[in-house]
Amino acid sequence: MTTMNIAYPEIIVIATAFIVLVADLFMTERSRAALAPIAALGLLVGIAVTATLTPVTGELLGGRFAMDPVAWWFKIVFMLASLVAVIMSMDTLDGRARVRPRGMGFRGEYYWIMLSSVVGMMLLISARDLVTLFVSLEIATLPLMVLAAWRRDDAKSGEAGLKYVILGALASAFIVYGFSILYGLARSADLNEIARAVATEKSPAFLLAVALVLAGTGFKLTMVPFHMWAADVYQGAPTPVTAYLSVASKAAGLAFAFQILFRLFGDMLPQWGALIALFAAITMTLGNVVAIVQHNIKRFMAFSAISQAGYFLLGFLGDASEGVPAMIFYLLVYVVSNLAVFACIVWFANETGKEQIEDYRGLSLTNPLTALCMMIGLFSLAGIPPLSGFVGKFFLFSIASKAGCHWLVAVAAVNSTISLYYYLRVVRQMYIEPADKEAQPPSPSTSISITVAILTIVVSILGIVPTIYQHIHAATITWLASLQ
Amino acid sequence: MNYVFYIAAAVAVFSTLMAITRANAVHALLYMITSLLSSSLIFFVLGAPYIAALQAIVYAGAIMVLFVFIIMMLNQGPASTEQERVWISGKTWVGPTMLCAVLLAELIWIVRGDPAWLPGKTIIHPKDVSKALYGPYILVIELASMLLTAGLVGAYHLGRREPERREGES
Fold this sequence. Notes:
The structure holds two protein chains of two kinds. By secondary structure, chain A is mainly α. Chain A has a domain of 215 residues. Chain A is built from 19 helices and two strands. In chain A, strands 1-2 form a two-stranded antiparallel sheet. By secondary structure, chain B is an all-alpha fold. Chain B has seven helices and no strands. The radius of gyration of chain B is 21 Å and the shape is flat. Chain B has two domains: 119 residues, NADH-ubiquinone/plastoquinone oxidoreductase chain 6, subunit NuoJ (Four Helix Bundle (Hemerythrin (Met), subunit A), Up-down Bundle), CATH 1.20.120.1200; 37 residues. Chains A and B meet through helix 4 and helix 5 of A and helix 7 of B.
């Protein structure tokens, strides 16, 4: 099928982005509150149109843009993540927050930048040649750098932006250098043709290219030892942006890793099991151990996100027909759980302006429902049954076990226990410590309350309802057949 | 004839190393221009004269001049004028000039010789470049414009002078 409709999701999001940018010029400051609903509506239409795209396989522009069932899932996740991020940003940007951080205005540009990063991510998973892949990766990350530095008066935000730019440029340089070597070896920019050309390649130039590209991929996925940027960027960025970064950049990193590891180096992936297992082990261990000692909740979530990247890597071991659905399912679970927790963090920061873990003491007394939702989100991240996080982790662990990496499963299980300890630190503050008597209790916000409620329900049922996983699994089988 | 390539590549590597190790921004820029010119020569040697010309005009020409202007405009006043005179003293020109002279010598040598030796064998003409850009790579062109717009809006936001618009102001 080569009709235009497989590109509709991207076209809708791009159109929304431009509508937001141009509408901003003609609006008064008061009426700019309509920009967030416009952006959210555009994303909703995008999700709806994507959902109706059947059959979902097809290509455009001589095969340089392709839609497949796995890309379909990634696009849904990207649009959902940014939809929630837009809703989360509304209170802060429209001035409804009790504590309004300085420099969080400029809504037209903010939503435009956020939407353009979504477009980049959506194209990233649909790209079929090196140039498109690289340019869409840049469209996905460059806006994130600007968003991290959005509060220009704030030293921390500026530091976050600068660190992200420098380390992100380094990672991009690695990737583009590796790509140029691959192009030289294969004499083609087409991903599938390169995969065929390098299938038996053993030359040092090829190994150098692989090392460079994998290092860049590791950076995007926050894989240890390429994780250094994450903590400072997450802490310094404005809180709604941190929420978006933690899910969207991780999802984009996974999409990029899919393109690299399955499409480009698919034939070699089975031989790299030991290396991937090693990276997975050190990533989850370092993320978890360092998260224990954190006091700032955003920094804490950054290390939690690093350790989650380690769990994702388990899916690359063993058979792809089980690994791919497990990773996509866990991505969905991770995005929903993390957004549920972050929605609470954004709301709390809006109401109190505080972001230390100790500041959450007594939240269960002042806002019992929010505390409950946050606890469910944290428990899902820790992997406690019957929440969806448990099911997701179970699939990933069983893949590592089937691949024969029993030591890795042991490491992962120990790490899950460690993570339970530090997630419980937040829960302990909320439920056991007494509330601060003098402080004014935070009041609920409509948009965030609804978001948190929906996300929490999804977190709770995603692991119990088998339909979603079945759909992902069926999609993967079609996708794997098309890779051959 | 690969020597031409290797000499140009060596100049590129050396001038890039010098560019990133100079403490003074203007000196670094002079070396960076040299580096860009040598990659332009490499494109020329590989049989892509159009890309080589673009590289020289756009990078070594427009973008670098912009850089030099910005750096010089950042330090205004009589003290910095004096400093600029020290920066652009004859001694700082020696290194980049010698490297550029090597490149120029190579270029003259190539142009005077028979073009049939070019390693790329086929010459990529402007028409081939345009056909590739607006044929199979049309999506990348559109994406690049999207990337530039995003970068432009981001740079505009980060660079604007007033701290924040006041409420009620359009």
